[in-house]
Structure prediction request, 234 residues.
Amino acid sequence: MSERAEIHHQHRDVTGGWLRPSVFGAMDGLVSNFALIAGVAGGSDNTKVIALAGIAGLAAGAFSMAGGEYVSVASQRELALAEIAVERRELERHPAAEEAELAADFVAKGVSPELAGQVAAQISANPERALEVHTQNELGVTAADLPSAVVASVSSFLSFGVGALLPLLPYLLGVTSLTISAVISCVALFGAGALVSTVTARSWWYSGLRQLVVGAVAAALTFGLGNLIGGTGL
Prediction:
């Protein structure tokens, strides 16, 4: 028999700092800028004003998303590292108690007390391995798995920019009708939602339709508000 266990499957990275900000950034950029452009178009026929609003929305949103993601992920990472440091001190000061705690955790998971004690002793013989197992059991994370604030920030910035550019692109190319922007945005909303389904358990049509409805409702409401305000002459 082979000394190494055969690997029958692989899992995707679910702890990295790029997927959530990328998906959220692209969706937010597409929905928010589509709604913004629709709102301005509902109250004004000036395509230059509409395009300027879209450019401003893209720039402001991308920088805001990037900054927010950086601070959020950095704070989350710092909190996790502080708790990991607490666990490290406990392992240094009370190794026997921590080993007993680890054995009790294995027993709670169905391992016999004798075997749990042996496994806990073997793990505790390596301080770094013990720290990794304890933090995974108690905090649900390890130091090596913590997301990067820089990766999250850059992913959010780029994805928001791409999403926000799509409804704006027709106006930059000289199109003067909201209809073209709306068609592109709706197709992109459905496509983005369907794409997300490849990393989730949802069907492509459900995920795509859900995102399309959310974006279309947001744009319709904002268009109505813009039309109402524009009609008052404000």
User: Anything to note?
Assistant: The chain has one domain: 19-224. Helices lie at 19-43, 47-93, 95-108, 113-124, 127-139, 149-172, 178-196, 204-231. The mean pLDDT is 89. The chain is about 80% helix and 0% strand.
